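Page 42, continued from yesterday. The earlier attempt failed because a stray header line got pasted into the input along with the sequence. Redoing it now with the clean sequence only.
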Amino acid sequence: MRAGKAKRSIALWAGLGTFCVLAGLVVPNAGSFPICSEIPQKADLILVIGGDFYGPRVLKGADLAVQGYAPLVLISGPPYQQGRPEGEFAVNFLETKGYPRRLFQVFGHNAGSTIAEAIAVCGELHRRNVHSVLLVTSAYHSRRADIVFRLFCPGIHFVSVPAPDNHYDPSRWWSDQSSRRLFFSECLKIAGSVLMYPRYLLTP
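This time it went through. Structure tokens are written below.
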């Protein structure tokens, strides 16, 4: 049963990844594909993916908490300085912006990819008995993050609520070098993430 479900998921996301690459060559507004933006809803927890602890990601997570969507923001991330996880620096930064420190907790790890981060964080979410999560990351990374967390962290309902990012402009992605690079990079990484899923299922 699990293998059959995995095959269907692989076919679906691989098809989407292929479409993304092909569409990007001929459709000007295909730049919106890497962005997965859903309407925020009440959740058990807000998860901010590591990689942007002084910018839009952590600010978005903090704003969602202040608006009452969840009682806690969990900031994920690897070590940044002297073995301290980047989330600790993010919390200090958010406190200087006037956000209550009690809204935030830090989950440190050594994951070097979105897949590894999803697997690492998943155990913590289950340990906390979390069932619903608002997933916050940069807009251009949100489609891949949504796919990865749904595949590699089953049993939890994720809602993607991305933060804006100045490095990616979906309306002019083809003419902007940074946006064009991110578009194709995300498409390839989406396909690669889906192809990694069967190996994950076979891992003891």
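Notes: The first helix runs from residue 2 to 26.
Reminder to self: strip header lines before submitting.
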